[in-house]
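Lecture 7, part 2: worked example. A protein chain together with 2-acetamido-2-deoxy-beta-D-glucopyranose.
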Amino acid sequence: MRSLKPLAVLLLGSLSAYPAADAKHVMIPATSFDSQSNFDADWDYNYPWGTDHNGAARMSKSQVSMSGGTLTITAKKVSGEKPATHGGKQIPIKYLSGAISAKEHFNVSRGGGYDFSGEFRATTTRGTWPAFWLTAVKGWPPEVDMAEWKGSGKISFNTFNTSSQVKAKDVNYPSPGDFHSIRCELRDQNGKDLAIKFFMDDKLIDTQYGRGFVGQPMYLIINLQMEGSSGSPGPNEDTVYQARKLEVWSYNP
Ligand SMILES: *[C@@H]1O[C@H](CO)[C@@H](O)[C@H](O)[C@H]1NC(C)=O
Ligand SMILES: *[C@@H]1O[C@H](CO)[C@@H](O)[C@H](O)[C@H]1NC(C)=O
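Predicted complex, written out as structure tokens:
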């Protein structure tokens, strides 16, 4: 054992120098859904702004569970909830569902970037609207929909420069009963704009560009909204959305 010591010190020394040179470090490790204490280190329940947003579901901690490293969000039909208010309009609440948001904010710095990845099992039933996305902490945009499913049988990948200047890529979503890997690579392109690469099952699906997204902090959200952009009526039976092996790596210098 004793003779190994100098070697161990040498190895540790060179290993710890490597990430600094590569400017790569983990922000959310793949183990964040392994236990409640791991979860609590990286995530909060609900949206960063509360329980309601732009659809027929109100978010509740009761609808989020973890088992064997998999996060499960269940939307269930309810009645008697007061309506949500969004953009000056009232939206009837017909479901209780779940959302989680990362405690950290993600702000691409000059020469930097992030990789967001995970495996998702998402429903494509009409009226179900699961999503894995980034949105602005201050004002809006940036918004990057790293994956969303709008009840059509497709998966959508979107970047918003403004509410009308949107690059949206919809592709067929195979076997929704299975887990599919999603990866989104964000990189500073020119000191102002982001280049965003969207992968499904390790295949590049689209490259989009976000104007002025460098230096803008973003929230990371995983949620199961209902109706809204995914149509109505939504299902009467429970809907499940699952995520596992969720990881975030930073390439910020
Ligand atoms: C985001 O990063 C930029 C520099 O890249 C910095 O000026 C700004 O303060 C950061 N914003 C937040 C909220 O951390
Ligand atoms: C958003 O802005 C970027 C950077 O200016 C540009 O390359 C991209 O085409 C714009 N997207 C849309 C949909 O106009």
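Helices lie at 5-22, 36-42. The radius of gyration is 19 Å. Keep this in mind for problem set question 3.
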